[in-house]
Fold:
Amino acid sequence: MQINETLDRYMMPAEWETHERTFVSWPVKDSMVWPENYDELCGGYAEVIRAIAAFEPVTVIVNPEQLEKASAMCGANVEFFEISHDDAWIRDNGPTFIWNANKKLKGINWRFNAWGEKYTPYDLDNALAPKILEMTRTFSWDAPIVLEGGSIHVDGEGTLLATEECLLNDNRNPELTRFEIEALVKAFVGVDKIIWLNKGLYGDETDGHVDNIACFARPGTIAMQVCFDPDDPNCEITMENLMRLRSTEDVNGRLPEIVEILQPPARYYRGKRLTLSYLNFYFVNGGLIVPVFGGDAEAYDYAAINKLQAIFPDRRIVAVDGMPLIKEGGNVHCITQQMPLGYL
Amino acid sequence: MQINETLDRYMMPAEWETHERTFVSWPVKDSMVWPENYDELCGGYAEVIRAIAAFEPVTVIVNPEQLEKASAMCGANVEFFEISHDDAWIRDNGPTFIWNANKKLKGINWRFNAWGEKYTPYDLDNALAPKILEMTRTFSWDAPIVLEGGSIHVDGEGTLLATEECLLNDNRNPELTRFEIEALVKAFVGVDKIIWLNKGLYGDETDGHVDNIACFARPGTIAMQVCFDPDDPNCEITMENLMRLRSTEDVNGRLPEIVEILQPPARYYRGKRLTLSYLNFYFVNGGLIVPVFGGDAEAYDYAAINKLQAIFPDRRIVAVDGMPLIKEGGNVHCITQQMPLGYL
Structure:
């Protein structure tokens, strides 16, 4: 038993810390809402993977029968782990890495139930995190709570951002109370303060993952996608969340500085409102991979990119086509999982 | 998802809260250090069970082949659950019940590894708690940490008492740090403050369970077994723990009042120092079951009983023979597990 007040504390590093690599799970046709789009979806994945691989190594988790196709599409700086999985959003069922002040790593194995039992089967996806941790020789710590990586963001200094709609949803942990969920999340992620937003994007089938509406840009600064059109249900959601952010201090006593990024125009696919979000961008070493949507969103795309470039003047921003991914419900952040550069 | 600040908080009630019943696991001959003492040990168990059953219902967990013997020995007010188990110290592998302000119950299923892998097999004992919770129709909450019930005491108001020797021992949770162990224990038991004692009794094979040296008598008051003989290794342990208790506030800002109970004279069995302790007593509804040791300890037995009666003027104290149990390493508290009177 090591007893050292500095080294004893393990916490989830902010996403902007240097990555050892990024994990992506290759899509599975059988799990798709629109399987006829499989090739288009794979193309979207490959574009994101190639974009990331220009900054850092990428490890793609692939079902054995897809290895050939995936490796042909992904290009260089990519390695493959053949692990059978059900679906392909590794942000949500992958491990959450934590580290201590010496950057010694551990991995959290959350329980995964496919966003409140929305899709089956999910047993392979629930079993994925410990397999990845075993392959990276990282200690796997089982968290007795259903939680998806996309439902939390951290500033790396002890504050966590989440939505009540998701973390407190009855379809995740019906037997646990808010108090218990807070205590467990704090214990595993190593934070002292949770800033609770209310809801995520309107129509988000993840029940309001925070990674589609807001994230830390740096400690003390939160970027948030906003909507000020009173006829759009995202307007009321924006107002409530802005009110909360403006009145909630982080663990260091700071009221967050808020960077507003305007949402693109509403877009539909086969009758369903898509959850377009620039906030689903992903930090890579020295860069930022940002989904854009084109068409009538083009002016918004540029505005978002410009605003992000202003917050992150030292990062090279790469825009990727978010449409192939969002038709299946997620985007760049949802299909990635970072392993920070630390020690085993 | 129920969101209610009062009802959301589940915590372990103090042992003195009214019990619905007490659980005891009937001893298993194969697991004994001295199997030739099996009948004597069963006699010791039966004496404790009969003593408790005069105050409240007792449920005895029994291996099927021992049901007849056990039921013949235990008398009235006792029911039996036939559940196969390896060993017989249900304080350590049984569920820890927690409740909220409405006394709604849940049960914690800690991991059990036979006190740091000291005995095998222990897989049946590790699986016992969820079986009991299922039979009592109580939600079972899996705690991802090795912990024995005998290694913690609570005051029911948010303070927990434990020893570093046990909870931080490398043979329990080698991958977890002190910070993580504290956070998890607080999250599950529902406490805000841990008062850390140093070591438990000299020679205690549990690696210093707190339930052999100290317990809360009421919020703000801690009873402690002390030794002031400088030639006895328990003297240094006493000094260190007294110093800590005198300088550590509980969660409500109180320095504890300390009630000292003098340890009985050292006694040996087959060359090994026995861990005689009056502090291994057990609260029952309206009473207290206290182990005594007789012989050269008789004057100490009386002194301990008198001191406990002075702290608990309204409880009927029943002394039982602690010798059959302590030769196997535990005592009254170790073989019992309370289920508080609450709601499901």
Observations:
- Chain A has a mean pLDDT of 96.
